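Q: Hi! Curious about what Enoyl-CoA hydratase looks like structurally. Here's the sequence.
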Amino acid sequence: MREEMGTLIYESADGVAVVTLNRPDRMNAIGGTMKEDLATAFFRLAKEDAGLRCVILTGAGDRAFCAGADIKERAELRRSGPEYFMAQKATHQLIRGMMEFERPLIAAINGVALGGGMELALTADIRYAAAHAKLGLPEVRLGAIPGAGGTQTLPRVVGASMAKELMFTAEHMTAEKALAIGLVSKVVEADVLGAAMETARRIAEMPPLAVAFAKRAVNAGMQGGLEAGFEFERYAAGMLTDSEDRREGFRAFVEKRKPVYVGR
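A: Let's find out. The predicted structure is below.
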């Protein structure tokens, strides 16, 4: 399956979809119809994609994952405070929707990921970075703040103190520093998309219900605290107890064969 939209490409095969931000001439900056196209990719194409098990988000070319907002486009936009406040709700809905998408999301950060680009990467469950990647939330340098979720998502990944340092100084950090502070889980010297694809294919072999419930359980605890996390964990474990996939997994283990999961 392949579909090209105005600013991105959606491709999927064998249970893995790759969503490519496709504005390489603008370093894949967020502009034009990109937000609408991302919503279409995640909320229509991916939901209709039978057999989908994992999604990879990356950028076209090898210079940029996403350089953030298209500043040239944004500079010409005039909005009052109340107008911005109301319009930004749609952006936050997109970010939340990507974070809560039913299947795991891997960000293959193949270059610069700054501002809104890093905020897109922060929606992912797993982040891999190319060795030459640069990451950061430099909005304060322009008299703004990270407004697409970054003030909330980054502290939940690296802790409040480190998140504040990165935002207050507008630092462009290296991939190695991002690895050291836990922002990414792997730095790849050569083919970051290939590394992400390898992990995505391993995930695609797992029982999809168990993966989906594990993702939701982690998110519930991170967003709602330990008690809420325990409650959801108990609920999720109960929902999986009598699933076809759980029974198949146990049978395959006993019979020493590869399981066949159907997502029920």
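A: A fun detail: The longest helix spans residues 81-99.
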